[in-house]
C-alpha cells in the first residue's frame, strides 16, 4: 500500500516534560490528488497505558483523584476523578505498564488484565496513543493516599460499588475523557449478576 502522506519537514520546537514538533506535510485527498503543504504543531505524544481496576467478587471499582494542571483555566474542582494511567516506559509492554501503574497509584495488584481498546485521544494535535484495559483486582475499604514521591504524585484512592460509580458518572462528576470511555465500556459490557 502506498503512503497517503508525505512529510516535507519536521522541526522540534520544545523538548521538556512534553515535546512539541512543527510538521509540514501533504496528504492524499479522496479524489487521489495531494493537498498543498500544511503546517501543524504536534505534541510529541506519550504512549499511555490505562487500567480500570475492578473487583468482580465485590462488584467494586477503584477510582483515583488527583490535581490536574490542565484544569486551572476553568472554575471547577481541579482534582479530577480518574482511572489509573501512566506513560509506558521504554522497553515496557502496555500490559506491564498497566500493572505497574495500578500498583504505584492504588497499591493493588492486577490478577487478570483484559484489553478494552487502543485509541488516539487527540489525533489533531498529538501523537499520543492510549492502551486501555480492565484489570481484575481485590478492592479495599477506606481511602489511601498513593503515588510516587519523586514524581510529586499525591493520589487519593478509593473503592466504590459499581452502582455508585454509575451514579457519579451520571451526575456529570467525571470530566476525564479516558475515564468516561472506560466506564462507558464497563457499563455496556460487564454484566454483573
Tell me what the structure shows:
The protein has 193 residues and is α+β, with helices and mostly antiparallel strands. 18% of the residues lie in helices and 40% in strands. It contains 3 helices and 11 strands, in the order E-E-E-E-E-E-E-H-E-E-E-E-H-H. The chain has helices spanning 94-106, 162-170, 177-189, and strands at residues 5-15, 19-27, 38-43, 47-55, 60-67, 79-82, 84-87, 112-119, 129-136, 143-146, 155-161. Strands 4, 5, 6, 7, 8, 9, 10 and 11 form an 8-stranded mixed sheet that branches. Strand 4 (47-55) and strand 5 form a beta hairpin. The longest helix is centred in the middle third of the chain and has 13 residues, at 94-106. The protein is elongated. The mean pLDDT is 92.
Mean pLDDT: 92
Q: What class do helices, strands and sheet pairing give?
A: alpha+beta
SSE topology string: EEEEEEEHEEEEHH
What fraction of the residues are assigned to beta strands by DSSP? 35-45%
**Beta strand count:** 11
Count of DSSP H/I helices: 3
Instruction: Report the uncertain regions.
Output: none
| Biggest beta sheet attributes | 8 strands, mixed
Supply Rg. 19 Å
Taken from the alpha-carbon principal axes, the silhouette is elongated
Distance between the termini: 47 Å
**Approximately how much helix is present in the residues?**
10-25%
Concise overview:
With 193 residues, the chain is of the alpha+beta class. It has three helices and eleven strands.
Key features?
single chain; about 190 residues; alpha+beta; eight-stranded mixed β-sheet; three-stranded antiparallel β-sheet; 3 helices; 11 strands; about 40% strand
Amino acid at each position: 500500500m502506498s503512503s497517503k502522506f508525505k512529510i516535507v519537514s519536521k522541526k522540534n520546537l520544545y523538548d521538556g516534560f512534553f515535546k512539541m514538533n512543527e510538521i509540514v506535510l501533504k496528504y492524499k485527498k479522496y479524489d487521489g490528488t495531494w493537498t498543498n503543504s500544511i503546517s501543524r504543531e504536534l505534541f510529541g505524544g506519550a504512549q499511555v497505558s490505562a487500567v480500570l481496576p475492578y473487583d468482580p467478587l465485590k462488584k467494586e471499582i477503584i477510582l483515583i483523584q488527583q490535581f490536574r494542571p490542565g484544569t486551572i483555566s476553568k472554575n471547577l474542582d481541579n482534582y479530577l476523578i480518574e482511572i489509573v494511567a501512566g506513560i509506558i516506559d521504554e522497553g515496557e509492554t502496555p500490559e506491564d505498564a498497566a500493572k505497574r501503574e495500578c500498583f504505584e497509584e492504588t497499591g493493588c495488584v492486577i490478577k487478570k488484565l483484559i484489553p478494552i481498546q487502543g485509541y488516539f485521544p487527540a489525533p489533531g494535535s498529538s501523537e499520543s496513543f492510549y492502551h486501555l484495559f480492565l484489570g481484575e483486582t481485590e478492592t479495599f475499604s477506606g481511602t489511601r493516599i498513593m503515588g510516587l514521591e519523586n514524581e510529586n504524585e499525591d493520589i487519593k484512592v478509593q473503592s466504590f460499588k459499581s452502582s455508585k460509580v454509575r451514579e457519579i458518572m451520571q451526575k456529570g462528576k467525571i470530566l476525564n475523557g479516558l475515564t468516561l470511555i472506560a466506564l462507558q465500556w464497563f457499563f455496556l459490557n460487564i454484566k454483573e449478576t
